[in-house]
Design goal:
By secondary structure, the chain is α+β, with helices and mostly antiparallel strands. 41% of the residues lie in helices and 25% in strands. The protein is built from 3 helices and 4 strands; from the N terminus they run βαβαβαβ. The protein has a 4-stranded mixed sheet, sandwiched between helices. Strand 2, helix 2 and strand 3 form a beta-alpha-beta unit. Helix 1 runs parallel beside helix 2. The radius of gyration is 11 Å and the shape is globular. The model has no long low-confidence stretch (mean pLDDT 91).
């Protein structure tokens, strides 16, 4: 998460899917404690478009990294 710290980011399943679909995602961050039914399709979408997907320990950790008030299952750095 350090290398794109100054980049714009989007948070949440719908926004990350949209960024992947539009080719704007640089890197996707997935919370290990998020529901696998939500995360696994995103991992597959990342592989299909060649965007790296990294994991973080928890939704709480991702929440802090994104400076939002609630836990997040995923986020993406975007161009």
């Amino acid at each position: 998460m350090e290398e794109h710290r100054q980049s714009k980011k989007v948070v949440g399943i719908k926004q990350v899917k949209k960024a992947l679909r539009e080719g704007r995602a640089l890197e996707v961050i997935l919370a290990d404690d998020a529901d696998p039914a939500l995360i696994e399709p995103l991992e597959e979408a990342c592989r299909e478009v060649g965007v790296p997907a990294k994991h973080t320990a928890s939704m709480k950790e991702l929440r802090r990294a994104c400076s939002i008030a609630v836990g997040a299952a995923c986020a993406a750095y975007v161009r």
